[in-house]
Design brief:
Largest sheet: 4 strands, antiparallel
Helix content: 25-40%
Distance between the termini: 35 Å
Order of helices and strands: HEHEEHE
Shape: flat
Number of strands: 4
Number of helices: 3
């Protein structure tokens, strides 16, 4: 709507999707669990972005404090010695502050990528 320069005038009907299952049969139906995981993945993906950046090894501990991620950041060595590439999930609402903090400690090439879906285990 925004791209076409349109805006909402009135909400006629508000709806929500609900997944309903008999609790006694839930364990017997793996399809219900699969659908639930897919929905949860989309919901989580809407709250997070993927932050990727390069930082010197000497500043890595500070960077991990700024971007701890959901479990832990993914850290990969770069060809140029002494530097690593870091990929980590960050709350979308915190993106600007995280980028500022990473820049202050010397991180470079900070890229924010939208996450379309996320699979949890």
């Amino acid at each position: 709507m925004h791209a076409a320069n349109l805006h909402a005038i009135e909400t006629i009907l508000a709806t929500e999707a609900v997944l309903i299952c008999n609790p006694r049969k839930h364990a017997l139906n793996p399809l219900v669990e699969k659908i639930k995981r897919r929905i949860e993945g989309v919901i989580v993906a809407q709250r997070y972005v993927l932050c990727t950046y390069n930082v010197s090894r000497e500043n890595l501990a500070q960077a991990v404090q700024i971007t701890p991620g959901k479990k832990a950041p993914t850290v990969s060595s770069l060809e140029s010695g002494g530097w690593v590439a870091v990929s980590v999930m960050v709350l979308k609402a915190d993106t600007a502050n995280v980028m500022d903090q990473l820049s202050e400690i010397g991180a470079e090439d900070i890229i924010i990528t939208e996450i379309k879906n996320y699979r949890m285990n």
